[in-house]
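[SOLVED] Predicted holo structure with flavin mononucleotide

Edit: marking solved, answer below. Original request kept for reference. I posted the sequence and ligand SMILES and asked for the 3D complex as C-alpha cells.
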Amino acid sequence: MSRLFSPWSLRKVVLRNRIVVSPMCQYMATEGVAGEWHRVHLGSRAVGGAGMVIVEASAVSPEGRISPGDLGLWNEEQEAALKPIAAFMRSQGAVPGIQIAHAGRKASTAAPFLGGKFLPPGAGGWQTVAPSAVPFAGYGVPAELDLVQMTRLREAFTHSAVRAASAGFEFLEIHMAHGYLLHSFLSPLSNRRTDSYGGPLSHRMRFPLEVVDSVRKVWPDDLPLGVRISTVDWVEGGWDLPSSIALSQELAARGVDLVDCSSGGIVPDAKIPLGPGYQTAFAERIRKESKIATLAVGMITDPVQAEHILVTGQADGVALAREMLRDPYWPIHAAARLGAEPPWPAPYSRAKG
Ligand SMILES: Cc1cc2nc3c(=O)[nH]c(=O)nc-3n(C[C@H](O)[C@H](O)[C@H](O)COP(=O)(O)O)c2cc1C
C-alpha cells in the first residue's frame, strides 16, 4: 500500500492522494483575470491525477501583485473567471485550492520571462508597501504601512477569502512566505517597526496572525485553511526554525490545518543548500513540534522520494512545482512506479499500460 496514494482528509475535504500541485505564478492574467491559459494549465494538472491543485498566488489588491500579469481576487470579474476553473478541477477529482497573496516590497516587477526587473511607478509599476521602508535589494523603497492601511489590507485578505469560497475553492492557502508582505512582517531583516507590530517575535507575528484570524472567520468551517511559510531565511539573524515552530503553534491554535513548508526569499543572495528534499527536514520538525499537518515542498521529483518523505513521517503530503510543469501526468506515472492504481481520467483509459 502506497502512502502517497492513500486518501488524505482535511476537515470535510478528502484528497484522492497526497500529491499537491504547488502554486505557480503564470504571469498570464489580464487585470488579474484568469483566461484560457489558466484554464488549460490548471485543468491539465487536475486531469493528470493530483490530489489537489493550488492556483497560483492571487493578489488581494492591485498593489499586491508581483507583476501586472498576476492573478487577482479582489473583484467580481476575477472571481467569475476562476469559478469554472475550480469546477472543472473538482469534476476531474482534484481538490481545487487557491493561494491568496500580497507581494509587499517585492511587488511591481516585470514577469520573469520579460526580464523580471523592478518596475518603478510611471514605467508600468506602482508604489510598493511594506512594514518598514526597507527595500528588497534592487527594488524601489516601499512606503511604510500605517495602521489604517494595515486594517484595509487585513480586510482585503478577508474579502478574497470570501470570493475564493464563492468561486468554489475547497482549500485556501495564505501566502506568508518568499519575502512577500506577510513574511516581511515576520522577518527581523525586513520588519524594523518600533510599534507593537515590530521588535520581538510576538510583535512581528501580530499582523500575519490578525490576517489569519480574520480569514478563518469567513472561510467555511468545514473547509481546510493552509499557510505557506518560509521556514528559514537562510541568513544569520533572520527568521529561523524555532520561530517557525512557534508561529505554527499559533497557527494550529487559530484553526489552520496545514503548514506548507517552503523557505527563503527575504533577501536575494541567501546561500541556500539546494538539493533533493532540501526543505523536508523543516516540515518534519514543524509537524512534530507544532502538532500540525505539514506539506513538504522543494525539489521533490521522484515517486520513491515522495513516498519516503511520507512514510518517514516528515510530512502529510508533498507539493511539486517544476516537476509538474515537466510532466502534468506525474501522478499517473508515480502510481505505476509505486504499484498503486493510476488515477487515469476515464476518456484516457485506453492508454492504460
Ligand atoms: C513558475 C513558478 C511559479 C511559482 N509561483 C509561486 C506562487 O505563486 N506561490 C508560491 O508560494 N510559490 C511559487 N513558486 C514556488 C513553488 O511553489 C515551489 O515552492 C518551488 O518551485 C519549489 O518546488 P519545486 O522544486 O518542486 O519546483 C513558483 C515556482 C515556479 C517554478
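OP edit: Residues 8-344 form a domain with the TIM Barrel fold (CATH 3.20.20.70). Thanks to everyone who chimed in.
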